[in-house]
Amino acid sequence: MRNVFMQFERKLMPYRNNNTFAIFNAFAQFLFLAVLVSLPVLVIRFDIDTLKTGASEGTLVEYMEQFLLSLTVLCYAYIAKHNPSFKRFGALVIGFFLCLLIRELDMFFDELVFHGFWVYPAAIVAASAVIYSLTDRVETANQFAAFVNHRNFGLLCMGLAMLLVFSRLFGMSSLWRELLGDGYVRAAKNIAEEGTELMAYVTIFYASLRYVFAMKPAKDKSTHKSDSSVLCKH
């Protein structure tokens, strides 16, 4: 009977290990996400309490947005480097986020050149990305379909919707004037808008980071070479 029990324990052990790993992994993901979603609030508090910049130009919030956008661009550049078949569609993704980064740097270009100059480098980047992606339309379309069918695309879409739609609607002056009435303060509206934008950039970066770990080329066991055509299969 003891031998039977020990054999049963040995068979059960792998399942216990798998369950334990899954539980700890879930807690780790929650803690990581808790830190990420706390980041916008911590940055805003640091802006207000320590730097005393409030909602003016050149705040830590803006610098953090630029930093997260830079990391997002690097995520897709890394994927394109290790997956040659992703390069053409990757150029569109990288170009899109690079244009957003250039737009966030508009104050830098305004001071360095002239007001509104950011439009020109953004247009060059956008045109270059589109032209390069069209050099092989079939491959670009295939990778586009694979990219949007990936499980992480929903999270990326959520971040983009927060950035391009929700933050704009939530930051409308008319909404805040109606809500606050005579107590309307533009700084409060700006902080709310910038805070939602930063939360959107956090979400976009997190989704992009998940793409980095998920979009790894499969390796052919016989040749030990990576198969770059296998993407977004997870």
Strand content: under 5%
| Order of helix and strand elements from N to C terminus | HHHHHHHHHEE
Spatial strand sequence of the major β-sheet:
1-2
Profile the largest sheet.
2 strands, antiparallel
Rounded to an integer in angstroms, the radius of gyration calculated over CA atoms is: 23 Å
Assembly state: single chain
Percentage of residues assigned to helices: over 70%
The parts where pLDDT drops under 50 for at least 5 residues are 220-230
Number of E-type strands: 2
Given the structure, what is the number of helices? 9
* Form type: globular
Distance from N terminus to C terminus (CA atoms, Å) equals 44 Å
Task: Give an overview in words.
- The chain has 234 residues and is mainly alpha-helical.
- The protein contains 9 helices and 2 strands; from the N terminus they run H-H-H-H-H-H-H-H-H-E-E.
- The chain has a two-stranded antiparallel sheet with strand order 1-2.
- A hairpin with a 4-residue loop joins strand 1 (218-220) and strand 2.
Structural descriptors:
234 residues, mainly alpha, two-stranded antiparallel sheet, 9 helices, 3% strand, globular
Write the layout of secondary structure elements.
Blueprint (H helix, E strand, L loop, with lengths): L1 H50 L8 H23 L4 H18 L1 H7 L6 H15 L3 H12 L4 H18 L2 H8 L5 H29 L3 E3 L4 E3 L7
Antiparallel strand pairs: 1-2
Helix pairs in contact: 1-9, 2-3, 2-9, 3-5, 3-6, 7-9
Gist?
This protein is mostly helical and 234 residues long. The protein has helices at residues 2-51, 60-82, 87-104, 106-112, 119-133, 137-148, 153-170, 173-180, 186-214; strands at residues 218-220, 225-227. Strands 1-2 form a two-stranded antiparallel sheet.
